Amino acid sequence: MRSTSPERGHVYRVIPALALSILLVVAACSVESSESGGTAAPPAPTTTAADGASSAPTPAAGEDAAPAPTSEVEPVECPASVTGIPQTGVALPIPDEFYVAEAFSGIFHDASGASIFVVELPERLSEEISTTDFLEALETEQGVNITERHDEEIAGHPATLVRAWQTLQGTRLERWLVIAESDDSTLMLTAQVPASEPPDELDALRDVLLCAAWTPGEMHGFADGPPFTIQPVPPFDDEQPLAGGTSFDGGDGALFIVVPSIAPLPGDRREVALDLFASMGPRGGGSLDAEPAVTAGPEPVSIDGFDGIRLDGEGSIEGEPFTIFQVVLFGEDDAYWRLVALIPTDRAEDLLPAAEEMARSFRRH
Known about the structure:
Layout: H1 11-35, E1 83-84, E2 90-92, E3 99-100, E4 106-108, E5 115-121, H2 131-142, E6 145-154, E7 157-168, E8 171-181, E9 186-194, H3 199-210, E10 213-214, E11 228-229, E12 238-242, E13 245-251, E14 254-260, H4 269-278, E15 293-303, E16 306-317, E17 320-330, E18 336-344, H5 348-360, E19 363-364
Antiparallel strand pairs: 1-2, 2-10, 3-4, 4-5, 5-9, 6-7, 7-8, 8-9, 11-19, 12-13, 13-14, 14-18, 15-16, 16-17, 17-18
């Protein structure tokens, strides 16, 4: 990875780990949906992966972890009408019986559990890690099996289209993944269906990806407004949409993130909060060098009528010590909202009160 700027600091370093985590949890969401019969749309994406890594086999020795680009796929005739995906700059043609999800950025099909997830990252992924290295990390770290790779364009932006499969909790998921970049941001589109569904369903979703309209820097609105508000407190004042939630850059490595759950996590809430906290380490695909140490909590909290759990801790990113603040607010049906601050330890005395104030300002619509 390249060196970080003093203004952005470890925000850059979070991006590749965040992208990996999103892909793993997106896959887990499809497993949850298919096993439940697809009777309800899944909750929103989160920036951390649940405990329990992928059970998919890793590439055999001597295999190429990420295939070299091959010829382009056949041209696709795109429909004239597309629908904006809330909280993103992406618009998609919506296949029959799919609908725009209310709880995450993307579209969903109840009967099959097929889905397309839309994730925009506020930096260019290639400034941190090459596409080839990123795809190799998907195989070696997440158990994704890549079978095809194509150079494409998405809405005029250079893109990589990848065909892959992954087995999670005994369910094989077939998917197409798009990674596209603008001058200052990254778009990741993930289309996936359970392997039990007909192959042409996945191919139809591939065509949806290729017909995506993307206007970086713009954001489609929600029908009834954003799902939450949070008041920024300096220096956390540079807000960017992030994986169904939002992030606030505090400068020089400090970051405050608000993200909703991608799938329900039933069980003891203290244990759920502790598991999410631990997932910021390598085992969960997080950006910390090792599993963070808990220094205070779990402590019960209440914000905007939601019961929650607060945890404080410490860890490091590339050897630099960080103070960690996490609040998990629990809603109905084991869904949750997660508020996390990563603060360089030498700034914690000044920035932790700002993070606490921001957490208290959270309001769900």
